[in-house]
């Protein structure tokens, strides 16, 4: 038998009213869709409150996911620690039925922030993993001023200066000519 406190059970909400949930999980990096940007994840805690929504079959869930993790910097490739508390507000509605097997289900503009369900229970671990994925920046940086890796020798320019000469991509050569012409006009 499954531990119902690890799942938001809509039947339980229908029967007993609003419910509160608290759980702590270990979520392996491999279970996260953006695992190339995450080095490790500590314990993940989710606190949530679930209640009936405004119309039949709809439910509202609000809560917070707290976690610590090590992200990999997109510039220098070094791991850096973060601690995050992500608040979330979700609306769940029954999945609309398509009239034909391959027909797409059309969703109106007021339903863009609605999650559709076909099962009457939602795993808390799944909600927590989604919140972790949503909290990962598009380009994780250890610091906004991170200098990254030298494109020539691969040295981490945050820790050491390299003696490589800056190479100019020849594709930018035409712009260099324009820059020089503008500099000459400015000096005249």
Biggest beta sheet attributes:
5 strands, mixed
From N to C, what is the helix and strand string?
EHEEEEEEHH
Q: What is the alpha-carbon Rg in Å?
A: 25 Å
Helix content: 10-25%
Q: In what order do the strands lie side by side in the largest sheet?
A: 2-3-4-5-6
- Number of separate domains: 2
Provide an overview of this structure.
This protein folds into two domains: 4-135, no CATH class; 149-188, no CATH class. The N and C termini lie far apart (84 Å). The chain has three helices and seven strands. The chain has helices at 10-16, 124-135, 173-187; strands at 7-9, 19-25, 38-52, 59-72, 79-94, 114-117, 121-123. The protein is α+β, with helices and mostly antiparallel strands and 188 residues long.
Observed structural traits:
3 helices, five-stranded mixed sheet, 18% helix, two-stranded antiparallel sheet, 188 residues, alpha+beta, 33% strand
């Amino acid at each position: 038998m499954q531990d119902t406190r690890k799942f938001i059970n809509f039947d339980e909400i229908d029967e007993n009213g609003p419910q509160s949930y608290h759980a702590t999980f270990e979520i392996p990096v491999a279970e996260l869709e953006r695992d190339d940007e995450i080095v490790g994840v500590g314990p993940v805690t989710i606190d949530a409150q679930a209640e009936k929504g405004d119309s039949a079959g709809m439910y509202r869930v609000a809560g917070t996911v707290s976690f610590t993790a090590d992200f990999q910097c997109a510039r220098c490739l070094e791991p850096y620690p973060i601690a995050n508390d992500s608040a979330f507000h979700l609306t769940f509605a029954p999945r609309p039925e398509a009239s034909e097997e391959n027909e797409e289900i059309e969703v109106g503009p007021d339903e863009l922030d609605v999650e559709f369900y076909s099962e009457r229970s939602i795993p808390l671990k799944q909600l927590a993993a989604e919140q972790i994925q949503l909290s990962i920046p598009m380009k994780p940086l250890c610091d906004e001023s991170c200098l990254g890796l030298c494109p020539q020798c691969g040295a981490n320019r945050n820790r050491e200066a390299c003696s490589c000469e800056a190479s100019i991509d020849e594709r930018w050569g035409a712009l260099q000519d324009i820059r020089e012409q503008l500099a000459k006009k400015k000096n005249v």
